[in-house]
Amino acid sequence: MCWRQEKKIAVLGCGTVGIATSRLLQESGCEVTIYTKDVPPNVTSNLATGTWSPASRVCDKKIARPEFKDTWEQATRFSFRRFQFLLGMNDIACWAEEYGVFKQAPVYTPGAGGEDFEIDGLLPERVRLEKKEHPFKADHVTRRTNIMFNIPTYLRHQLQDFTMFGGKVKIQEIKKVEDIDALPEKVVVNCMGLGAKPVFNDEELTPISGQLSCLIPQGDVNYKLYTQGANFIARKDGIYIGSNGIVGNWDTTPSREQTEKTVGILMKLMEEMRG
Ligand SMILES: Cc1cc2nc3c(=O)[nH]c(=O)nc-3n(C[C@H](O)[C@H](O)[C@H](O)COP(=O)(O)OP(=O)(O)OC[C@H]3O[C@@H](n4cnc5c(N)ncnc54)[C@H](O)[C@@H]3O)c2cc1C
Question: Ligand 1 mean position to 45 CA, how many Å?
């Protein structure tokens, strides 16, 4: 039997991927139960910065199958369209200016957070600003408008829609493949993120850790900025400062040194701004 004929579906995991998958399944007429160890805010998705960045680390170009680009492009266009419907709705998502501020043109490393895959025509073009058009002490400044998500509001909205359409959430940890076999649903979608690694003994699944530090929101700081070694995004719930991405790191212990480093870089940049 084709899985599409099966109407009762189990989704494993209640992060952003699990909830979005469940909503789409509901829209196609399925009854969905989410089985999950944790729910927001205790999921990795609650710690994302909140930038719409569909190309970021999505797949290493060297190992992508030829059909991957098409699949990714279709998914990206679909998600972009869907996110348009959230704009203007209680600050779940909004357009925000995004500045890149560098002493010289940055060199992106493909596969390490650089954009291996790109689509023209969705977002406004990134434009290079003339010196008189920006206040930064830097020679290479760009600006682009991008979609930004207020993460707590977004996850709450998605979860509320899921339950409003009859979805159920059951707190249950999947420890081994047999636990999945024991579920009443015949079709199961894995959205456990990094939690899938031990369940499936997946040798390839690799974490990339990142640390965010949060400042109290400031009324006139309503944009995103990235520079060498640091970035920040101004959300409703705080100004989130980040930058690092350590491939293969499972340790989630916060590092004060990392926070001081990124805050220091941004403080210097702000102090050097022309008034
Ligand atoms: C600092 C930082 C900033 C980021 N910024 C961005 C950004 O701006 N834009 C962007 O697109 N992405 C960003 N990301 C990446 C993004 O956060 C992740 O790609 C995304 O959250 C993954 O979602 P997920 O639903 O797959 O996983 P998770 O949010 O980890 O959800 C996994 C779910 O599975 C459940 N689970 C796990 N194991 C089990 C188990 N054994 N049994 C039952 N349930 C289980 C968990 O409880 C959870 O509910 C960022 C990541 C970090 C760390």
Answer: 4
For the Cβ of 11 lying below 6 angstroms from any atom of ligand 1, the answer is no
Q: Are 45 and 191 in contact (CB under 8 A)?
A: no
- Burial zone of 19 (CB within 10 Å; 0-12 exposed, 13-18 middle, 19+ buried): buried
What is the tens place of the pLDDT at every residue in 94-125?
A: 999 999 999 988 776 544 455 678 888 899 99
pLDDT tens digits for range 221-242: 999 999 999 999 999 899 999 9
Measured in Å, residue 274 CA sits from the centre of ligand 1 at 39
Q: Is 159 in the pocket of ligand 1 (CB under 6 A)?
A: no
Q: How far apart are CA 164 and CA 169, in angstroms?
A: 12
Task: Examine domains 1-50+150-204 and 51-149+206-275 and report if their fold is the same.
Answer: no
Q: In this structure, which CATH number among 3.40.50.720, 3.40.50.300, 3.30.310.250, 3.40.50.10610 belongs to the domain 1-50+150-204?
A: 3.40.50.720
Kindly give the number of the ligand 1 atom that is closest to the alpha carbon of 45. 21
- Cα–Cα dist 90/164, whole Å: 18
Does ligand 1 have an atom closer than 6 angstroms to the CB of 18?
A: yes
**Ligand 1 pocket check for 37: Cβ under 6 Å:** yes
Question: Which residues, given as ranges, of the chain have pLDDT below 50?
Answer: 110-112
User: Ligand 1, closest atom to CA 51?
Assistant: 8
Domain boundaries in the chain?
1-50+150-204, 51-149+206-275
| CATH architecture of the domain with residue range 51-149+206-275 | 2-Layer Sandwich (3.30)
Whether residue 195 has its Cβ less than 6 Å from ligand 1 = yes
